[in-house]
TrEMBL record:
All copies of domain BIG2, residue ranges: 37-117, 121-201, 202-284, 287-367, 370-450, 453-532, 541-616, 617-699, 700-782, 783-865, 870-948, 953-1031, 1034-1114
InterPro entries per UniProt: Big_2, Invasin/intimin_cell_adhesion
The protein's name in its UniProt record: Uncharacterized protein YjdB
Coiled coil region boundaries: none
Entry's transmembrane regions: none
Record Pfam families: Big_2
Length: 1116
């Protein structure tokens, strides 16, 4: 130590001399260290290999004769014999060109050399394997190729530095890896500053199987387990002795090379590990075979007790009471407490009592005052406002006992403004419904309360027939749950769907005009409909349609109206009567009076129906024949008589006085009323007496057949049609016998016929029959039977609770159409999706169903979609991911109007390959490499999004590194190469990150330098990442205008600092560099200005970028 102090003193004296010398004009910057007692100079390294552009620092140390040493790096002289290959400054060597150079460090009379080899710069280092699969003792080689900056390549496996993360598993030499033991390691190869890694699996099994996964043993009993390993190539091997075995509880069971032995009662888990795989075996060691308890379920009242007994059964079959020895516990001591098997009920609830003995346990369920069933004395209560009702509640406990808990229960009402309950007493306040709930012991019972609400409403008559201007007093009867009834006619709400036909006021119906209307009475949420017919007459018929009168003679005609309900009444008084010639005949209220000789037609009209009566008036006689028509066979005779009627009412037989004639003597002849059939055909026999004539139609031989004008009819309800019938006789002659034929209908509710005039009444079918001369003919008639029916909409799309009106049209054989919406029968396939009332469709719940309209034998079905979308769209059609990545899909439903709704959370999601990619509420998670389809279903529509996991082969950056100055920037692009070889620029899509925002930032591939240092810019896409090393303000070297400085106290010296970048550009960084001093009491530094503040020695450090320069300052 003393020698070091003396050497330092000499150095100070020497420095003083030098300073003195400097005062007379010499340079003040001189070496401050003497070498006179230096024994040798050593370097930190005498050999060095560098790549072009790289730098390395060498330290020089002086070893003195006294054995001490000193760092002389900054005091030594450094030079290169070939500066074009390698240069040196203050021990920092910079490689410039490929080749070898010798560098010399000297201090005083001592010198050392460094052999420097400069190699080409490695741009990339690639391997030929990603992973290795090895068995113990086997080897595999990794090929390593270096790509230099001049784009030449070289195999460098033998030159690289290799290492293994665990040489107990695998070793590596010159790229050759040898398997040592089971396991996984990472092999690292480094060359030219670049590194590659390869995963090596040694004896790594794909699966490991044990011969048994559970074992039950008695104490001191053993059992051997075998292990089988299955490798990636499908081969298997027993590895029982190679595995590492362990026990979770060696006091219970232990294992040695697969043999498990039981030591004491209890359970243990045996684990076998082989390579990276493990398998477990559950072991149960116990001499107790089973544990039993005398009760499995216990019911207690609060503060009551019950004793349990637990028995242990051993393998020998013997048993022992272990109640006292067992360990007892309760899952809920607030409900039930147990001590040595004695259970005490604490509070209502359920608890599980557990008894444990050895490793066996037994459990008992304890119910303390648990209600199994709660029943009300009445589930429905009907009250009047202001009234009260009493309900009792009975609890049935779990063990079967019962108790009235009316006063203990908690009572609530869904609408206390309607009804309120307390301790079972229900008080009604106003009309409405409410649900009263009684709750006790975790159970509830509901009582429906109706206040002044009828269970149904009815009326005395649902179908009413009234006359125009007539009133009808309808009633409304409300029936209640207690079977009582009240007349609520005046309190009900009455409406008519057609006030032009019927009006209604508080049940009083008034007929306004002919027609039918529906009157509805509503009360207490219930309603009833009444069908009201006002003068709805199906047809009218006169008692006589041919009247003969004398002058001033009258005849009363009955006018019978058949109503829609089938009743018949005489409406002669109400009908409107008219005459075509009132001077001949006048009619009023059914009475026809003859005034002058002649004929007239009288019409009676009632309720849109009409009938005509032909009237003949004469002041003289009236002639009547005994027959108006005859049907005779050839040669058959018939005697007809003729009677004359006089104005005074007397009559006389004038058969013999009348003049008889025939229209066709070949068919029929007549003599004084005796008619003889001569030949087939028809003839008219006429008797004339006193200017009056009467005619008898004679048909000889019955008609062979009848031919109607229409073979069938298709009519509308309310319409009329005239049929004619032609009879064809034996001689081939024909005659229109429409008015002579007898007509009938087999269904007069559908169609009625008289003298060929057909009236259609209601939808259906009927057969009209015409009979004449022994021949008949049938004419089928359909009324309102369409060829087809159609709906106004082919398909309906509704939202839930939305309504839509459907119209149904019938198309008939004549191509006409009619709206029959109110006449069809409606049905719906699924009334949980939609409902239909009189053509109004209402959406109930999301789904599809059909609505059917039935009309006669025809029907039409309309698909109805409720809450279903017109289309479904995903935000992307394809998602490319890496394993463990997630991606949120967004699904949009588009309705018929183009409105969009985000239904991501509502859709039903499914993955075609859950092992590749799973999905939950649109969040896709990648699990393994592969492809899958993600399907989203909503509103009856589905959309599929393809997912590709780790399908990108690699990702490449346009630049592999960047060296920037502060404020500078560079643009990097990223390209992905897919497994099929296709490429894509994903610069804008990639996820860009920087490892240090203080050094460099990145946005869209644009890298901007911020501050000095090194950082990594990464771009990630589809699970692949590329890294771009970035250097900011990294220098080749940093120099100062002075290295060794000698000053006197108070003096100052301006030092300049120059940075040389890797592109060999130089910048004065004096103002930007960081200047620090080791001893501010000796010297300070700021912006290169060195000030001597006190005597002594100090070191000034200049730092800029990644470089530092050390200045030695001596102040005297």
């Amino acid at each position: 130590m003393e020698q070091i102090k003396q050497r330092q003193l000499r150095n100070i004296l020497l420095a003083f001399v030098i300073l003195m010398w400097g005062t007379i004009g010499t340079n003040p910057v001189l070496a401050a260290t003497s070498s006179e007692d230096l024994s040798k100079l050593v370097l930190s390294s005498n050999e060095l290999t560098l790549a072009i552009g790289d730098s390395a620092a060498i330290s020089a140390y002086g070893i003195y004769e006294d054995g001490t040493s000193e760092d002389l790096t900054y005091y030594a002289d450094w030079k290169s014999e070939d500066g074009s290959i390698a240069s040196v400054y203050n021990g920092t060597i910079t490689a410039k060109a490929e080749g070898k150079a010798t560098l010399i460090a000297s201090y005083g009379s001592y010198a050392q050399t460094i052999q420097v080899e400069v190699t080409k710069k490695v741009k990339a280092l690639t391997k030929d394997k990603q992973t290795l699969e090895l068995r113990k003792g086997t080897t595999a080689s990794i090929g390593l190729t270096a790509t230099y900056t001049d784009n030449t390549t070289e195999s460098v496996a033998a030159k690289a530095d290799w290492s293994s993360t665990d040489e107990s598993i695998a070793t590596v030499l010159n790229g050759t890896v040898t398997g040592v033991a089971a396991g996984t390691v990472t092999i690292t190869g480094t060359y030219g500053g670049k590194t590659v890694t390869v995963t090596a699996n040694v004896e790594v099994a794909k699966r490991l199987d044990a011969s048994q996964t559970s074992v039950s043993l008695l104490q001191n009993e053993s059992q051997t387990i075998t292990l089988t390993a299955t490798y990636a190539d499908g081969t298997t091997k027993e590895v029982t002795s190679d595995a590492v075995w362990s026990s979770s509880n060696e006091a219970v069971a232990d294992v040695l090379s697969g043999t498990i032995k039981g030591y004491s009662a209890g359970t243990a888990t045996i684990t076998a590990q082989y390579g990276t795989k493990t398998v477990t075996i559950a072991v149960d060691v116990d001499k107790t075979q089973k544990l039993t308890v005398d009760e499995q379920n216990v019911f207690l009242r609060v503060d009551k007790t019950q004793q349990l007994t637990v028995t242990a059964v051993y393998p020998s079959g013997t048993a022992a009471d272990v109640t006292e020895s067992a360990v007892w516990s309760s899952s809920n001591e607030a409900v039930a407490y147990v001590s040595k098997g004695l259970i005490t009920g604490i509070a209502s609830g359920t608890a599980t009592i557990t008894a444990k003995y050895g490793t066996k346990t037994v459990q008992v369920t304890v119910n303390v005052e648990i209600v199994n069933l709660l029943e009300a004395s009445s589930e429905e209560v009907t009250l009047s406002a202001g009234g009260t009702g009493k309900v009792t509640v009975k609890a049935t406990y779990i063990e079967g006992t019962t108790e009235d808990v009316t006063s203990k229960a908690v009572w609530t009402s869904t609408d206390s403004t309607v009804a309120f309950a307390a301790k079972g007493t229900i008080t009604a306040y106003k009309m409405g419904t409410a649900q009263i709930t009684g709750t006790y012991g975790g159970k509830s019972v509901a009582i429906s309360v109706s206040v002044d609400v009828p269970s149904k409403v009815s009326t005395s008559s649902k179908e009413i027939n009234i006359q125009k201007d007539e009133v009808y007093y309808a009633d409304l009867i409300a029936s209640y749950a207690d079977e009582s009834e009240k007349v609520m006619t005046e309190k009900a709400t009455w409406t008519s769907d057609d006030t032009s036909v019927v009006t209604v006021n508080k049940g009083v119906l008034t007929g306004v005009a002919y027609g039918t209307a529906t009157v509805t009475a509503a009360y207490g949420g219930k309603s009833v409909a009444l069908t009201v017919h006002v003068e709805n007459v199906r047809r009218i018929e006169a008692s006589s349609t041919d009247v003969a009168l004398f002058i001033d003679e009258s005849e009363t005609i009955q006018l019978m109206a058949t109503l829609t309900d089938g009743t018949v009444k005489d409406v002669a008084q109400e009908a409107v009567w008219s005459s075509t010639n009132e001077q001949v005949a006048y009619a009023a209220k059914g009475v026809i009076t003859g005034y002058t000789s002649g004929t007239a037609t009288v019409t009676a009209a009632y309720a849109n129906q009409k009938v005509t009566i032909y009237v003949s008036v004469d002041q003289t006689k009236k002639l009547k024949a005994s027959e108006t028509s005859l049907f005779l066979d050839t040669d058959e005779t018939f005697r007809a008589t003729v009677t004359a009627m006089y104005p005074d009412g007397t009559t006389a037989d004038v058969t013999s006085q009348a003049v008889w004639s025939t229209s066709n003597g070949a068919i029929a002849t007549v003599y004084q009323g005796l008619i003889t059939a001569e030949a087939p055909g028809t003839a008219s026999i006429t008797a004339t007496y006193s200017n009056k004539s009467v005619t008898i139609t004679v048909d000889v031989d019955v008609a062979r057949h009848l031919d109607p004008s229409d073979d069938q009819l298709d009519l509308r309800a309310g319409s009329q049609h005239t049929l004619t019938v032609i009879a064809t006789f034996a001689d081939g002659s024909q005659e229109d016998v429409t008015s002579k034929a007898e007509w009938s209908s087999d269904n007069e509710e559908v169609a009625y016929v008289a003298k060929g005039s057909v009236a259609a009444y209601a939808m259906g079918e009927a057969v009209l029959t015409a009979s004449y001369g022994g021949a008949t003919v049938d004419i089928p008639v359909t009324v309102d039977l369409p060829v087809k029916i159609r709906a106004s909409e082919e398909e309906l799309h509704l939202d839930v609770k939305e309504e839509a009106e459907l119209l149904i049209y019938a198309r008939y054989s004549d191509n006409s159409e009619a709206d029959i919406t109110g006449k069809v029968e409606w049905s719906v396939k699924d009334d949980g999706i939609a409902e239909v009332i009189n053509g109004t469709i209402t959406g109930i719940a999301t789904g599809s169903t059909t609505v059917t309209a039935q009309y006669g034998e025809k029907s039409v079905t309309i698909p109805v979609k409720v809450g279903l979308s017109a289309s479904l769209e995903a935000n992307v059609p394809l998602v490319t991911m890496g394993v463990s990545d997630t991606y949120q899909l967004v699904i949009t439903a588009v309705d018929e109007d183009g409105n969009e709704t985000n239904v991501t959370d509502k859709a039903v999601w499914k993955s075609s390959k859950a092992a590749v990619a799973g999905v939950k509420k649109g969040l896709v998670t990648a699990y393994s490499k592969g492809k899958a389809n993600i399907t989203a279903t909503y509103g009856g529509q589905s959309v599929v999004v393809a997912v590709e996991v780790d399908q990108v082969a690699r990702i490449e950056a346009s630049i592999t590194s960047a060296s920037l100055k502060s404020g500078g920037s560079v643009k990097a692009t990223v390209t992905v190469v897919y497994s099929d070889g296709n490429k894509k620029d994903v610069t804008a899509l990639a996820e860009w990150k920087t490892s240090s925002y203080k050094i460099a930032t990145v946005s869209g591939g644009v890298i901007t330098a911020v501050g000095s240092g090194k950082t990594n810019i990464t771009a990630k896409y589809a699970g692949k990442t590329v890294r771009i090393p970035v250097e900011v303000d990294l220098l080749k070297y940093l120099e100062t205008s002075y290295v060794n400085i000698a000053l006197k106290v108070g003096e100052q010296l301006q030092v300049q600092s120059t940075a040389t970048y890797k592109d060999l550009s130089e910048v004065d960084v004096t103002k930007h560099a960081l200047w620090t001093t080791s001893r501010a009491a000796v010297a300070t530094a700021k912006d290169g200005l060195i000030k001597a503040t006190g005597k002594g020695k100090a070191s000034i450090t200049v730092a800029y970028g990644d470089k530092k320069v050390k200045l030695n300052v001596i102040v005297s």
